[in-house]
Amino acid sequence: MKIGILGGTFDPIHMGHLSIADAAMTQARLDRVLFIPAGHPRLKQSEPQASIEQRLEMVRLATADETRYQVSDIEANRPGPTYSVDTLEELSATLGAGTDLFFILGLDVLGQLDQWKDPERLLGLCRLLVLDRPGEQDFSWPDFYRWVPQAEGRVQVIDAPLVDVSATELRGRAAAGESLAGQTPGAVAVYIGQQSLYQQKS
Ligand code: ATP
Fold this sequence. Notes:
The protein is α/β, with parallel strands linked by helices. Helices cover 36% and strands 16% of the residues. It binds adenosine-5'-triphosphate.
């Protein structure tokens, strides 16, 4: 069983996330994609605006129609900052042998690898599926492989149609009272309205 892991803040989930999950699933022939919202994302400047319960609910709503997408609350209740390596370790212990884990991430996140906990160990637990993201032109693959030689042969670049949307932009649109149509699934847009989320600019 090949399982893709898509971690994120999902504050809120949007079409960019769904597009990378879809592209990763097709191109790496994954059986499932597990969406894992982070309780306290470590590499973000500020705490998420929506609670972890609200972010989990938005991910559930966005993925409800695709049976190969699942949502995990494994990082939801972990106190303190979230480290991907701990999550992957826990998942590989629970899922056991016969499961191959593929960590899906954008080039923006890979560019921050020097700030990760134990990248060598992480690469022992999973392969990386890396997606390009608008505005990430200055990433250097030679520098990356010099930094983590263990990554050699364990990285697959995924081509996804560029979806130029970010959670930051969506929060801004919500705060300005603008429509979120086309940027996040309808059910998520409705939920954001019902919960009065993102009323203030971040
Ligand atoms: P924010 O704008 O608040 O920083 P975000 O839109 O980057 O949020 P995250 O939940 O932090 O969303 O992202 C989770 C993962 O999804 C990261 O690996 C990120 O690189 C990737 N990602 C997010 N948006 C896109 C996009 N439009 N295209 C490709 N990858 C994306």
